Amino acid sequence: MPLKFAFPPSVDATTRVLVLGSLPGDASIRQGEYYAHRGNAFWHLIGDVVGEDLRAQPYAMRLKRLRAHGVGLWDVMESAQRDGSLDSRIRQADLRNLVDFVDRLPDLRAIAFNGKTAALHGRRQLAERPGIALLDLPSTSGAYASLSREAKRNRWLALRDHLI
After folding, report:
1. Which residues are 21's β-sheet partners?
2. CA 28, CA 143: separation in Å to the nearest integer?
3. In angstroms, rounded to a whole number, what is the distance separating the alpha carbons of residues 96 and 114?
4. DSSP secondary-structure letter at 137?
5. Which residues are catalytic?
6. Residue-level pLDDT at 3
7. Which residues contact 152 (CB under 8 A, 6 or more apart)?
């Protein structure tokens, strides 16, 4: 099973909301971009949260605009073995030290877990972080079809409360 690696964080000292995924999928790894698969609704949903059409912008500008709104991106895993892109196929995950990372973000108000796998691994480390809200959000992956995009959108809009 191939070993796959995550990306560096996209954050700065003004990050108020940190979105944590599990591990980039194959399309993202190939393109070197978070949430690159066409079927992933992340850029639509986070665009609704910040009030900008991020899908229409080049990738580097998407990250810049998210940081301007106080939103950072990272993953709970540094690397893992996985065939394909499904979280259910992840084996031998090397988890990141989220506690030390979060401690270096002075304005952080909330951590949003993009899907159940990110929440499972992230909450284990971050459960006792006073002053930081932990939000379990439905996965933006197209493989998670139990909720409509509109239902996902309604849940993701809760992030707005932490960006004010």
Report:
1. 75
2. 15
3. 16
4. E
5. 40
6. 94
7. 41, 45, 137, 138, 140
